[in-house]
Design a protein that fits this description.
Pfam families: Bac_globin (PF01152). With 126 residues, the chain is mainly α. Helix content is 61%, strand content 0%.
């Protein structure tokens, strides 16, 4: 199977992003450290995450078309993101990558990129 150079296409495009985001928010909505900083209804949050991850991993620039420049750190400043919350977020994402059946080497590449992003989002000490 030949893939072009983007992670987005290599993992199977929109369907894989959708599976990943669905698996991720199923966990976020139940995680005691994350519940306080996420809305009760995660529908819109998940929609924006699908757009962002599509663009972040080399697919169409859907997030930018819908929301403008990502500016992720600025958009996350209203939420107290501590090291423990970063770790909880990454734990949920790691499990979601497995559930969504994202294959290696893409699973590790995605997790590494999202770890850098999560580190950048931290804005509050414990």
């Amino acid at each position: 199977m030949t893939h072009s150079g983007t992670i987005f296409e290599s993992i199977g495009g929109f369907d894989s992003i959708d599976r990943l985001v669905t698996a991720f928010y199923k966990r976020v909505g139940q995680h005691p450290k994350l519940i306080p900083i996420f809305p009760e209804d995660l529908t819109e949050t998940a929609r924006k995450q699908r757009l962002f991850l599509t663009q972040f991993f080399g697919g169409p620039k859907l997030y930018q078309e819908d929301r403008g420049h990502p500016m992720m750190r600025r958009r996350h400043l209203p939420f107290p993101i501590t090291p423990q919350r970063r770790d909880a977020w990454l734990e949920c994402m790691g499990e979601a990558l497995i559930e969504a059946e994202i294959e290696e080497p893409y699973r590790t590449a995605i997790f590494e990129r999202l770890t850098m992003t999560a580190n950048h989002m931290m804005n509050t000490p414990e």
